[in-house]
Amino acid sequence: MRKGKPGGSIAIQLEDVSKIFGEYRAVRNLSLEVNRGEIIGFLGLNGAGKTTTIKMLLSLLKPSSGSIYMLGSKVDAGNYKLWDKVGYLEEATFYPELTVMENLDIARRMQLISDRKSIDRVIQKLDLDAHKNKKAKKLSLGNKQRLGLAKAMIHNPEILILDEPINGLDPASVVEIREMLLDLSRNFGVTIFISSHLLEELAKLVDRIGIMHEGQLVQDIKMDQLEQSLQKSLVLDGRNKGAITRILTEHGYNYAETTDGRLALTEGCAIAQPEKLAELLVRSNQPPTHLSVVTEDLEGYFLRTIRTSRRMH
Ligand SMILES: Nc1ncnc2c1ncn2[C@@H]1O[C@H](COP(=O)(O)OP(=O)(O)OP(=O)(O)O)[C@@H](O)[C@H]1O
After folding, report:
1. Dist. CA 151–CA 132, nearest whole Å
2. Structural domains present in the chain
3. Is the pLDDT confidence value at 1 over 50?
4. Which atom of ligand 1 is the closest one to the Cα of 51?
5. Residues whose beta carbon lies within 6 Å of some atom of ligand 1
6. Could you report the per-residue pLDDT of 27-61, keeping only the tens digit for each?
7. Where is the ABC transporter domain (predicted)?
8. pLDDT tens digits, residue range 161-214?
9. Helix (H, G, I), strand (E, B), or coil: what is residue 119?
10. Could you give the maximum distance between any two Cα atoms of the chain, in Å?
11. Which residue from 60, 161, 229, 262 puts its CA 20 to 30 A from 53's CA?
12. pLDDT of residue 312
């Protein structure tokens, strides 16, 4: 596999990475490339291996096997130079009695940045100007998260790694954070690796989604492809379901029962020509009381992906 070169287009590269705790394989043979400026969402249920992967990216954990490169440079505990280029936010922490400026000044000094202008820069970038003299404890939830991001970005990193940054935020703050991350990626070329279990939210932000399940990457899909991968089904209902299912079987249609007791057909011919099925049922004296083509939602796609991967492994 080609390595991401220092000036190349690949920002993050994992090559066959596994992490084993005792007997337990928390991450299994994970290979992934993230391009510069791309926003990738890393999605999975609790325990899927997201945080373990993030900790390996940050060299807080050493992979049991495989290699990780960021900006063309191998990630390991001794590679300090890399941390000038990577920002990380898990949970927004700050000194509540200090102002936004004072909090950022502490972050600046901890990063050993001598240039005090770095504070003004990050305040501009994250639109915190109106709040810079407020005590951190007085900020709204969204602005607290902004301050957390500002701290993670004080050194102007090229890669931003965020572990569940929108957890627990109110809807307005979620929108704010989303717009800000989009701005960082589109206008400043920052590569963003963001983990979450909220697919609906991720979908509005990311270019690509990687779905982790039981330590494995079971799906890696671009958002524009995702749209086409959403399953369509023809959902129908009628007064005598027993009679309808018999007719369907006689005519070679496969069906499944939906959670609300209706019948769902996923074959292309049924979806393309629902009128044929309607005609058939009317002719058979079982007119449908409901007939509609439904597109699966993202949550449904996520759960189906996980279920399919369970059957395969
Ligand atoms: N230090 C450790 N020792 C043993 N097992 C661990 C350790 N760290 C994580 N695990 C296990 O590895 C699995 C993956 O955990 P991880 O925290 O990466 O999941 P996650 O996808 O981030 O989930 P969550 O959303 O709950 O944080 C879990 O079953 C967890 O119990």
Report:
1. 13
2. 10-227 (3.40.50.300), 232-295 (3.30.70.100)
3. no
4. 22
5. 21, 24, 26, 44, 46-52, 197
6. 999 999 999 999 999 999 888 999 999 999 998 89
7. 12-239
8. 998 877 767 788 788 888 889 988 999 899 999 998 888 888 889 999 999 999
9. helix
10. 82
11. 229
12. 61
CA of 287 relative to ligand 1 center, distance in Å? 52
d(CA 25, ligand 1 centre) in Å:
10
Closest atom of ligand 1 to 22 CA is 4
Query: d(Cα 238, Cα 289) in Å, to the nearest integer?
Result: 5
Atom 2 (ligand 1): residue with closest C-alpha?
21
Q: Is residue 282 packed enough to be buried (19+ CB in 10 Å), middle (13-18) or exposed (0-12)? A: exposed
Question: Which residue stretches of the chain are H helix?
Answer: 50-57, 100-110, 117-125, 141-152, 171-188, 199-203, 223-229, 241-250, 268-272, 274-283, 298-312
DSSP reduced 3-state for 288: coil
Q: What is the pLDDT of residues 141-159, one digit of tens each?
A: 888 888 998 999 898 899 9
What gap in Å lies between CA 190 and CA 181, rounded to an integer? 9
pLDDT given at position 311: 63
- Identify which of 20, 25, 43, 50 to mutate to test ligand 1's pocket (most ligand atoms within 8 A of the CB): 50
Q: In residues, how long is the chain?
A: 313
Round to whole Å and give the CA distance between 194 and 34.
Answer: 12
Residue nearest to atom 11 of ligand 1 (CA): 26
pLDDT in tens, 209-234: 999 999 999 999 999 898 888 989 99
Ligand 1 centroid–CA 313 distance in Å is: 20
Tens digits of residue pLDDT in 83-128 = 888 988 877 788 999 999 999 999 999 888 888 899 999 998 888 9
Residue 160 is predicted with a pLDDT of 94
